[in-house]
């Protein structure tokens, strides 16, 4: 069994900022990633806008504006901490060599980052700082000590025959991303909710799971949901008639409504000014490659759109933050990035882009420092560690699962979350149907899923269990919030109601909900 002070699970921005912050605080740090740290995940595959506002009146106005949009669910103290920490940490990133563009006055423009270059710099930074990086080492379960404190994790080495690894740690930071249910959105295949499941098994609470209805527009055969590219788009019907976008409307909104109605929408970037076209190709090359391979000139031709589900990546929900250092409700366990709720800074509005990008930097910083402090205070305890994983690893029935069971469970779960008609326009009736179906899926998974000796099969089984659990939390929270607020829309409760509070959810075999109380909020602050 390997040993370390802080174990970081994940390999994206939040994970690398957490690792950097912990090692800078004097901790020994190991980082384990499901893929290759610096190249896997949603951020590495895209551009990353940031909430980068200088101190003073502009920052105060930005915070007020976002708070007004969030319909009462944000915490302004957290907003101030995040925007301030982002501002400070980007100076560090500049010092580490990130090539920020410079304006005509010689001032660096730090409001966005190119994902591949950003993550390459972060990997190099933590490697040089002494972090031990274990690529292709997905975690499958947490390790718990005799006091009920999270004290490590276990998983498999994918490129070493799927052998099992175990790491004892003084504290663990989960930075495993959100969950897109394998919808195919570019860069999100590692994001299957594994960290949420591991945390919930240890007793962690979640929050904001009803705010999980975000879709991004993509070419019909593509996976690149670059909404910013389509801000310049002209939309057309299948017969070539132009679709007018009304004041306050958006390409995303029209494409979503048409998809729910079963109507195809086409887009063209023919209206993009000539002087912006090269810049667009440079900033988002992945958007253009599949279209050009299909022989489409996006600045001349029309191409069909579809909406791709982005779940709790561009949604808001995740593990409930129970302290200023991004502690979860389980001792020894910290959360950073999309695995944690972002309601504190965005409410129920998508944090996609600027806010999620800044949350990754800031929450990673808070969690890494907090985990280092926790580990230093408590010390490393390796005696009597028990593996905590259950569903998908240790089925109740003896024997091993049928090889196709995991895929069958995943497909059945996707059928109740990926269609926009079920997710964007919710009704109590459909939610209750989903609840019944997913309760049955969970019972099947609990009884039969797991027990396979090949580590890669075990990973697939755990992914299936995590996605079922994720949808059960989403469904329970959507049923509990009997109103329409932010991205959560109920056709049977179409008005904004009086549930002006965050909704906590937890449990595995039995799902429960409750309002977040004032005591919870004081603890988190």
UniProtKB/TrEMBL annotation:
GO MF entry, a single one: flavin adenine dinucleotide binding
Keywords: Flavoprotein, Oxidoreductase
Entry's Gene Ontology BP terms: anaerobic respiration
Entry coiled-coil feature ranges: none
The Fumarate reductase/succinate dehydrogenase flavoprotein-like C-terminal domain, residue ranges: 457-502
Any one of the GO CC terms: plasma membrane
Residue ranges of domain FAD-dependent oxidoreductase 2 FAD-binding in the record: 5-340
Organism domain of life: Bacteria
Protein name: Pyridine nucleotide-disulfide oxidoreductase
Provenance organism: Microlunatus endophyticus
Organism lineage: Bacteria, Bacillati, Actinomycetota, Actinomycetes, Propionibacteriales
């Amino acid at each position: 069994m390997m040993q370390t002070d802080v174990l970081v699970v994940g390999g994206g921005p939040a994970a690398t900022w957490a690792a950097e912050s912990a090692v800078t605080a004097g901790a020994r740090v190991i980082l384990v990633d499901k893929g290759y740290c610096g190249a896997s995940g949603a951020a590495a595959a895209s551009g990353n806008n940031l909430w980068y506002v200088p101190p003073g009146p502009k920052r105060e106005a930005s915070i007020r504006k976002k708070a007004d949009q969030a319909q009462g669910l944000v915490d302004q103290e957290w907003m101030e901490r995040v925007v301030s920490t982002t501002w400070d940490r980007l100076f560090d990133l500049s010092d580490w060599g990130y090539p920020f563009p410079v304006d005509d006055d010689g001032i660096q423009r730090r409001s966005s980052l190119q994902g591949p270059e950003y993550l390459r710099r972060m990997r190099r930074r933590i490697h040089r700082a002494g972090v031990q990086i274990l690529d292709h080492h997905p975690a499958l379960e947490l390790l718990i000590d005799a006091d009920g404190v999270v004290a490590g994790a276990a998983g498999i080495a994918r490129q070493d025959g799927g052998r099992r690894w175990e790491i004892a740690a003084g504290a663990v930071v989960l930075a495993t991303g959100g969950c897109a249910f394998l919808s195919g959105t570019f860069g999100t295949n590692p994001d299957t909710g594994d960290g949420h499941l591991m945390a919930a098994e240890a007793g962690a609470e979640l929050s904001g799971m009803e705010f999980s209805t975000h879709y991004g527009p993509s070419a019909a055969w593509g996976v690149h949901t670059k909404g910013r590219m389509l801000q310049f788009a002209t939309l057309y019907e299948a017969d070539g008639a132009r679709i007018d976008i009304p004041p306050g409307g958006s390409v995303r909104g029209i494409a979503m409504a048409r998809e729910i109605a079963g109507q195809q929408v086409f887009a063209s970037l023919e209206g993009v000014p000539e002087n912006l076209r090269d810049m667009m190709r440079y900033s988002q090359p992945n958007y253009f490659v599949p279209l050009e391979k299909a022989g489409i000139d996006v600045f001349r031709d029309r191409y069909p759109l579809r909406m791709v589900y982005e779940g709790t990546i561009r949604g808001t929900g995740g593990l409930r933050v129970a302290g200023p250092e991004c502690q979860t409700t389980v001792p020894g366990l910290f959360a950073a990035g999309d695995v944690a709720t972002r309601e504190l800074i965005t409410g129920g509005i998508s944090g996609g882009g600027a806010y999620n990008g800044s949350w990754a930097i800031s929450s990673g910083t808070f969690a890494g420092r907090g985990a280092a402090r926790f580990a230093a205070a408590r010390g490393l305890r390796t005696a009597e560690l028990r593996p905590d994983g259950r569903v998908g690893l240790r089925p109740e029935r003896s024997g091993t699962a049928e090889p196709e069971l995991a895929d069958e469970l995943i497909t059945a779960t996707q059928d109740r979350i990926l269609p926009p008609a079920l997710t964007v326009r919710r009704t109590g009736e459909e939610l209750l149907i989903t609840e019944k179906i997913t309760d049955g899926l969970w019972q099947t998974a609990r009884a039969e899923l797991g027990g396979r000796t090949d580590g890669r099969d075990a990973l697939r089984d755990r992914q299936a269990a995590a996605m079922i659990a994720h949808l059960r939390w989403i469904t329970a929270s959507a049923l509990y919030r009997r109103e329409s607020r932010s991205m959560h829309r109920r056709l049977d409760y179409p008005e904004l109601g009086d549930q002006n509070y965050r909704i906590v959810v937890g449990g595995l075999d039995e799902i429960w909900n409750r309002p977040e109380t004032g005591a919870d909020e004081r603890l988190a602050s």
